[in-house]
Structures are given as structure tokens and as C-alpha cells.
Design goal:
The protein starts with 11 loop residues before the first helix and ends with a strand. The protein is α/β, with parallel strands linked by helices.
Length: about 300
């Protein structure tokens, strides 16, 4: 028996099914070709080898079909692991990591020195496209320190801030060169030259999406989407307007608020759609962008 005899041939039914999937993507390929899509990457999708590879394939696929993906990443699990290894205590207030000067050095080391080049390498396994950037590079981000209000009291968070200024030119230059920018979520402190801030990657991705005039923001997270009445599984919301989300926001779990706030800010800032999707599902990025039903929760301005 020859090797050819062992090949599993596609049945007509399987061929039709595969063709239907490809054809379903056609209007979305037309819609997003030459458009910028910002994808915030983090959570469980970042720590599983299988999911890392699937994400890298998705991003490479977008580039090959003519979309202009921009990746913004955090690295909470990796930061926590390194702080533990170095016996530096971790503390969270209102969903934000309290970041001392010592911890900030670790944040920079992990995000820019570990997570970013690893992600760039995974994407580049599929083609020489990805290029690493930090929010500190060429004035990409500018940040200001922020605290957090808990039960009416303001709490200091240390070297934690909001992105208050974006110069998209470093990212636009990479896109013009045919590259995939991969951006770590650190910002120079505008009020304290020479110091940097740990900024929320969801909010940073939204700010960058607005500045780039992106067609879509996609936020990967560790749940299936937005639940109107958590933990009722049947309350998953597939589509919501910005005004509806604004009303719902104060009732959400604290960990969900920054992600949904990012989607709200993006749509109010001119990004046509924003979606929060389950990064635990392989290839969830492609399903969200190239299918009619999508996956997770989509936010639209109107």
C-alpha cells in the first residue's frame, strides 16, 4: 500500500462545510481589509502554550488576509509569579495592583523583557511581521498617576496610572512598514520625568484604538462575555449599545469593570465596535472577527 492510499479524503459533505465557513468570512474580509484592529491580549490565553500558539496563528492570519492587527498586552499572571519569586508582596485595591518602585522595576522587566519578546517570537514563527514596542517608546503613551476610590475613600496605588496621551505615530510607522506592532502596557509618568507607570492594558488598548482610528477593539478575557445577571449562565449578552452598557457598568463585578469600561470608552471615542471575548477558546479572535454570530459580547455606539 502506498502512502497516498492512507490519505483521508474529504467527503463532499465535509468540503461543503469547509466552503461554507470560508464564504461566511467573505463580507468580513471585505469589511476589515486594510483596517486597523486593536487586540488586547492577556489572562488565561497568555499562560497556556496551546492558546498562545492559537493566538499567534490568529494574528498572523489577520495580517496575511490584509487586516492590520495591533496587539496590546499586559501580563498580570507573569508579574505576580515574578513578584512571588522575588518575595515582593503583591496587593490589590479595587481591582488594581498596588505598584511600589521596586515592583515597577519588575513590571517593566516582565512586560518589556519577557512577555513582549516571547509573543513577538510566536507570531514571527508564521512570518517576519511582529515588532515589539513599549508604551515608553518614542512617546507612544503618556501617563498620570491615579488612585482608586473604595467605599468613598481614595487609596494610593503607587506607580499606577492612566494613559492620558497617545502619539500613534510609532505604531503607524510599523503598520506602514507591513509589521504587526506588539505593545506592552507601560507609560512614562508625565508629571515625574524618568519614572514610568503600570497602566491597565484594557484602558491602554482602548486609548490606542481611538488614537489609531481603529475599526474594532477586541479584548480577550477569562469569561465567555458580559453577563447581565452573573452568575446566571443564560444571561450572557451578545450585543449591547454604549448607553445600555453605561447603565449596567456600576452593577458589574470589579474585575469586569475595567474591560467593559475600555469597550465603552472605545466606542464613545469613535471605534465602530468593541468586543469582549473568551480567550480560553482557541481561535476566538478569528471567530469574533470573521463570523456573523461572533463570540462573546459586542458593544456598539448606537
Amino acid at each position: 500500500m502506498s502512502a497516498a492510499d492512507n490519505v483521508q479524503h474529504t467527503t463532499p459533505e465535509q468540503a461543503a462545510e469547509k466552503a461554507a465557513v470560508l464564504i461566511e468570512s467573505l463580507p468580513w474580509l471585505a469589511r476589515f481589509r486594510d483596517q486597523i484592529i486593536v487586540i488586547k491580549y492577556g489572562g488565561n490565553a497568555m499562560v497556556s502554550e496551546e492558546l498562545q500558539d492559537a493566538f499567534a496563528q490568529d494574528i498572523a492570519y489577520l495580517r496575511f488576509v490584509g487586516v492590520k492587527p495591533v496587539v496590546v498586552h499586559g501580563g498580570g499572571p507573569q508579574i505576580s509569579h515574578m513578584l512571588d519569586r522575588l518575595a515582593i508582596p503583591s496587593e490589590f485595591k479595587g481591582g488594581y495592583r498596588v505598584t511600589s518602585t521596586e515592583a515597577m522595576n519588575v513590571v517593566r522587566m516582565v512586560l518589556t523583557g519577557q512577555v513582549n519578546p516571547q509573543l513577538v517570537a510566536r507570531i514571527n514563527a508564521h512570518g517576519p511581521f511582529a515588532a515589539g514596542l513599549s508604551g515608553e517608546d518614542a512617546g507612544l503613551f503618556g501617563g498620570r498617576r491615579r488612585g482608586v476610590v473604595i467605599d468613598g475613600t481614595e487609596h494610593d496605588l503607587g506607580a499606577v496610572g492612566d494613559v492620558v496621551r497617545v502619539d500613534p505615530q510609532p505604531v503607524l510607522d510599523q503598520l506602514a512598514a507591513g509589521r504587526i506592532p506588539v505593545v506592552s502596557s507601560i507609560a512614562p509618568d508625565l508629571d515625574n520625568p524618568g519614572q514610568s507607570l503600570n497602566v491597565n492594558a484594557d484602558a491602554a488598548a482602548a486609548s490606542l484604538a481611538i488614537a489609531l482610528g481603529a475599526a474594532k477593539l477586541v479584548v480577550l478575557t477569562d469569561v465567555a462575555g458580559l453577563y447581565a445577571d452573573w452568575p446566571r449562565r443564560d444571561s450572557l449578552v451578545s450585543h449591547i449599545t454604549a448607553s445600555e452598557l453605561r447603565e449596567l457598568l456600576p452593577t458589574l463585578e470589579s474585575g469586569m469593570i475595567p474591560k467593559m469600561q475600555a469597550c465603552l470608552d472605545a466606542t464613545l471615542g469613535g471605534v465602530e465596535t468593541a468586543a469582549i471575548i473568551d480567550g480560553r477558546q482557541p481561535h476566538s479572535v478569528l471567530v469574533e472577527i470573521f463570523t456573523e454570530q461572533g463570540i462573546g459580547t459586542e458593544v456598539v455606539a448606537q
